[in-house]
Amino acid sequence: MMHMNPPDYDVLGIGLGPSNLALAIALDEANRVNGAACNFHFLERQPRFTWHGGMLLPGSDMQISFLKDLVSLRDPTSPLTFVNYLHKQGRLEDFANCKTFYPSRVEFNDYLRWVADSFASSCSYGETVIAVEPVQAGGTVTALRVVSRSASGRESVRQTRGLVVAVGGAPHIPALFKPLYGDPRMLHSSRYLDLIGERGLERPGARVAVIGGGQSAAEITVDLQARFPETRIDLIFRGHSLKPSDSSPFVNEIFHPSYTDFMYDLSEDDREAVVRTFRNTNYAVVDPDLLEALHKILYQQKVEGGSQINLMPRSQITTVTAGNEGIAVAIEDRFAEASQQTRYDAVILATGYERSLLQPFLEPIADHVEDLSVDRSYRLKMRDGFLPRIHLQGYSEASHGLSDTLLSVLAIRSQEIAKSIATMTRERCE
């Protein structure tokens, strides 16, 4: 029996990055293959599709095989694989001649945009979700009211029986730097290419600090060196040295979709131990090829007697102060009685991202959340009497493994979520 006044959508996706793009493929596939009628739509705050646009650096390559695209591991015959994208662009043979599994980040972004274009009618760009509110009938929440706002301030309201949240992480700003939030001389790596050209670093004598010891910090350091030859660059990090990421074949098996089952079935303590064991695959590490490139730059600098790049390991930042002459950063060597303070024209925070299971726009339904965890199909656990299904993509590393924030499981995870949504769609039609 059909419900009276059904919601506008069966599923609304918040965010249209790789995770929800993969879901769009899976939902569309299910509709075509199974004859289902799942009505889905996505809301994206960016004005157009871009994947990490602030870090699409020249010469930066993917750190994951192109076979782990949005769909190939589930259905290599799909018309939306990376291989078919190459074929449609007339570059398949040329890419094969590159003899690599790792396309440039710029090209992979173009592939994602190509897929996004095929779902253009299913996405509203330039809309930021500001609230998800319960729609109640008696004591039961039967649907969700999703309120979004455009750049011009116009608000839109949609209703849905299901929600898939995939808005990515928020830039992590270390506590010492938070008082400077909004200072134009400080920027997070996520906005690097958007803002770095406005910082006046092309002038001789300019000085910039890059904070962090991972992939983004190393990439930015190399890019700054090429982009601003007269600028002095200090790479400040806490470790003893820059460390290589481990992408060896057996270690990489932790990113197989099948490993998610193993991880989910472990106790909480054992999960934490696994994450600690394999942190060097993804956190505070640098791709070995990039490490070699940076080392060669530093060696040539020694040969020529230059000092453009200065590595500052074992550094603990103690104070950060903004003044007319720049941002003063004071550091202590963690293993020696030495300290120094330097003024910078720009400070770039390559300090990663924070991910919260309960996004601010979900606050109106917070009282209906049973606990801040998801089940095996990535569904948020809600209290009795809450009928809509809320799935989360990219917030379950602690329960589902290190692959949860990466591209590795997108094809399979999207299918698992689509199956969960399909049961809801069937219930609507009964």
Automatic annotation (TrEMBL):
Pathway where this protein functions: Siderophore biosynthesis
Cofactor(s) in the UniProt record: FAD
Pfam family, one: Lys_Orn_oxgnase
EC nos: 1.13.12.-
GO molecular function: oxidoreductase activity
Keywords carried by this UniProt record: FAD, Flavoprotein, NADP, Oxidoreductase
Annotated GO biological process: intracellular iron ion homeostasis
InterPro entries, per database record: FAD/NAD-bd_sf, Lys/Orn_oxygenase
Homology family: Belongs to the lysine N(6)-hydroxylase/L-ornithine N(5)-oxygenase family.
Protein name: L-ornithine N(5)-monooxygenase
Organism listed in the record: Methylobacterium brachythecii
